[in-house]
Amino acid sequence: MNKIRILLLFLLVPMAIRVEAQQKPALSWKEVSKWNFIRPGSNVLSPGGQWMAWTTGPTEGDLQVIIRKTTDITKLVFPIGATTNPIAFSKDSKFVAFKVSAKDAEVKAAKKTMKPTYDKLMLVSLPANVKTTFERVKSFSFSADAPEWLAIQFAAAENAPKDKDAAKGTDLLIYNLNTKKSFNLGSVSEYTFNKSGSQLAYTVDANGQNGNGVFLRDMKTGLITALDNDKSVYKNLNWNENGDAFALIKSNKNDAYKDDVYTVIGINKIAGENSNKVLFSGLDKTGFPKGMGINANTNPYWSDDQATLFFGINTLDKKDAKTADLKKDSTLKSKSAAADTASKAKADPKAIAKADIEKPDMIIWNWKDKRLQSAQQTQEMRDKNYSFLSAYRVADQRFVQLADSNMRNVSIAPKGIYAIGYDNSNYELMSNLDGQSYTDVYLINLATGVKKKIFDKMYSTGRGGLSLAPNGKWASFYDDGAYYSMDLETGSQYNLTGKIKSSFIDELDDHNVMKPATPSLGWSADSKFVLIKDNYDLWKISADGKNVTPLSGNWKKSRQMVQNRFRIYEDEKGTDLTKDQYFGVFNAETKKAGLGILEKGKNDIRILFMDDHAYGGFTKAKDAGTFVYTREDNQTAPEYYVSSAANLSAPQQLTKNAPDQGKYAWSSGVKLIKYLSANGDSLQAALYLPANYVPGKSYPTITYIYERLTDNLNAYTTPAFPGGGFNKALYTSNGYAVLMPDIKYKLNDPGMSAVACVVPAVKAAIATGIVDEKKVAIHGHSWGGYQTSFLITQTNIFKAAAAGAPLTDMVSMYSLIYWNSGGTNQAIFEASQGRLTPGYWDNWDAFTRNSPIYHIKNVQTPLLLLHNDKDGAVDYTQGIEYYNGLRRLNKPVVMITYRGENHGIAKLPNRKDYAVRMMEYFDYQLKDKPAPDWWAKGVNRLDMEKHLESRAFDPGDY
């Protein structure tokens, strides 16, 4: 009898465990607000590798900075308020500093009273955890490579003037980390340490501009030198890389111009009072273009040899004589003008001055405009402030304008011998029409200013342009399926990839681009080699193309590839092959990923590990052999791992991300499905399992589409309120399966391509038994919204659909405006995502064949539409047109518009609202839950306010 009881106990224990697992609640929107997670990109590794810090906390609420020792379990935790701010370590890793903002409740209260909040600075001594706090801090900086100093700039007083011309300077505290002594510098507007931390350059902007200037503090002696003083505003301090020279600009009032006139200041040969100073304003100087001046937004800098100052120039607006006279006595003039106008109007209405006649408010659109008027308006401020790169050669006091209205894009090559200029003026109009970009390329000799055309009409769509070698004497480029190099000194060109029996045309790029290139990873640090990828392998090729070395061993056979190189060495110039180099590796077939190493002096990338995870964030401590990276999968949040071995052996987990996940039901995993599209292409789809998945049982499923999605098979989804409403983690937790198929496109058939790929993917997923064929829905946003809107005109396989910001009429959409940039959609259609070319007048069948609106009578699937009234990407009329068409046909459709929102939903209350509504909708359609009133009933405008008040919710209510 006892044996039977024991046996029953053993049989019941696994069942009890399963029941307990099934009893975990699904995630609700309340948990999203409280979801605790590490903020991506917030981590910082100390220079010596002993410590790592990161920010963590809930989606809404107050955050913490965690500082963890990398060699043991020592951990320090600090509350930092509601805002994520940068974290910084001192050079010797003995101190860490970060700002502490106001708490979430304080921020909300301050918004109601319109009162400002101020940050504190927390300075922590490690490992003793001795804390020092500074109040009302604006910014801070450790002294670069010197470990002794911390500079702290304080916020202005609340009652300080805030007008445009008010002084911007505030107190700057120079704090010695070792002695705790501090020194105050008043009215500082900008400050920056040089690379070694031996010098602090700063500018003063005081009330009445009294004592304004640029100053240099010797951090060893404490001696302060005034390098330039004037009744001016000084700004844009910029040290060179070596830290032995810097440049800035200063402004001066000039009655001839509407805005301030600027002067470039270059400081080098630093020796206190004896430092060399160069000033250049350009006005009235030989060779300087009339009507131009130093750009106020320029960041001037020295050439490597400190022979040349580089900066930008732009147009200066002159004051007309009338404006100048008005300024001399504005009050008298305004009164006189008003009286004179009134007198003339009374005596003779025809005598009113032309300036007083109301002007027309209009725009003229001319077919010869290179850019649409809407684009010119959207980019007006950018155009007005456009900085034309220029140079001033100090020795011969010669100015050279490098960029101009035609050659706007100029890049200075390393070492400052040459510059490369790109002039697309002859092709700009056509490029804005059809998206195919070309440019003429010039080589500019910086010593003489001579410009020589080296390429005529280079195809620049995609990866066009030159990649410059660190020595500044070589460049590589792509043309017509092959990579080439060019000796800039001789003009000789060499085919780099001609000897390699592989394709350098990107096989996955299905846009209307001529032979799209695979990536180049750039030059080696010694400028002897170029690292170029085919679709799978990486090649090391000599500058003249004569020697070719494969760095990966024919990985194409297994569809394994080099994905990227991690830049882990500070201030690197190219890939230094005398140091270990690390690469991300990926298998396109299995979706396994990992890290590989190219050891110094070797020619073979060795895979260190590769598995069913996603890896990223790989970095190295600046002054130590300590490495950190993230690892995640679809069920496990990204965690940071540390290793002190070059081969990344024996890694230790540093973090505990998403600590509350174990309390809730979670996806049971993912399956990779292989299938054939209707076009005969071998494709894949990711099928994410619902929480508590039971083999043999089928589940309601959301099909989420965009383009190719399966490469993210092992990526984690953080619960969140997204801008498009859908969050995979929420749906799988609530019992849905989620299907994400890949889509391969045929030119001039984007919609039909989606049908050819998505419908077979759904059928393949149904065949697994996991997907309930009667309860499949589809959702996508933007391009995914277009495909969703189109698919329901071609198939009834879906029980419900939700489309966010969809294109619905490809004919009208083609010639509408992309308001976020002001340009037309034509270029997007013909060379980018639209994949329809040429215009509909010559391609009517393709445009109508792929437009949801032309097949609208076929729709039998209920549709939830999202389209915001300020959508600057997909015109709002696209949603309106589809909604009104469906409504006229009495099809079940609801469109939601968030007023003032753009292409995605930005405001948190709106994001919360739509996320809840979308799930309510799918729960009704796929889970037989009651229909929400906003779906089942019409909405009376007079009752809308009450409805919205009822939805002003704590997400936990849903």
What does this 3D model show about the protein?
With 958 residues, the chain is of the alpha+beta class. Among the domains are: 204 residues, Methylamine Dehydrogenase, Chain H (7 Propeller), CATH 2.130.10.120; 36 residues; 240 residues, Rossmann fold (3-Layer(aba) Sandwich). 19% of the residues lie in helices and 32% in strands. It contains 18 helices and 54 strands. A ten-stranded antiparallel sheet has the order 6-7-8-9-10-11-12-13-14-15, with no helix packed on it. Strands 45-46-48-47-49-50-53-54 form an eight-stranded mixed sheet, with helices on both faces. Strand 39 and strand 40 form a beta hairpin. Helix 4 crosses helix 5 and helix 10 crosses helix 11. 39% of the residues are buried. The N terminus is likely disordered. This is Dipeptidyl aminopeptidase/acylaminoacyl peptidase. Keywords: Aminopeptidase, Hydrolase, Protease, Signal.
What would you say about this model in short?
The protein is an alpha+beta fold. The protein is globular.
CATH superfamily of the domain at 666-808 and 861-957: Alpha/Beta hydrolase fold, catalytic domain
CATH topology of the domain at 666-808 and 861-957: Rossmann fold
General form: globular
- Average pLDDT level: 92
Per DSSP, the total helix count is 18
| Strand order of the biggest β-sheet | 6-7-8-9-10-11-12-13-14-15
Number of strands: 54
Question: How does the SSE layout of this entry go?
Answer:
Elements: H1 2-22, H2 29-34, E1 36-38, E2 44-45, E3 51-58, E4 63-69, E5 75-81, E6 87-89, E7 95-100, H3 104-113, E8 119-125, E9 130-142, E10 149-154, E11 170-176, E12 182-193, E13 199-204, E14 213-218, E15 224-229, E16 233-239, E17 245-252, E18 261-268, E19 276-280, E20 292-294, E21 301-302, E22 308-315, H4 321-328, H5 330-347, H6 373-378, H7 380-384, E23 388-393, E24 398-401, E25 409-412, E26 418-423, H8 428-434, E27 438-445, E28 451-459, E29 467-468, E30 474-479, E31 482-487, E32 493-495, E33 520-523, E34 529-533, E35 538-542, E36 548-550, E37 560-565, E38 581-587, E39 593-598, E40 606-611, E41 614-620, E42 627-632, E43 639-643, E44 652-653, E45 670-676, E46 682-688, E47 699-704, H9 728-733, E48 737-741, H10 750-767, E49 771-781, H11 783-794, E50 800-804, H12 810-814, E51 817-818, E52 823-824, H13 826-831, H14 844-849, E53 863-866, H15 876-888, E54 893-896, H16 908-927, H17 933-936, H18 941-950
Parallel strand pairs: 47-48, 47-49, 49-50, 50-53, 53-54
Antiparallel strand pairs: 1-3, 2-3, 3-4, 4-5, 6-7, 7-8, 8-9, 9-10, 10-11, 11-12, 12-13, 13-14, 14-15, 16-17, 17-18, 18-19, 20-22, 21-22, 22-23, 23-24, 25-26, 26-27, 27-28, 29-30, 30-31, 31-32, 33-34, 34-35, 35-36, 37-38, 38-39, 39-40, 41-42, 42-43, 43-44, 45-46, 46-48, 51-52
Keywords: Aminopeptidase, Hydrolase, Protease, Signal
GO molecular function: aminopeptidase activity; serine-type endopeptidase activity
Signal peptide: 1-21
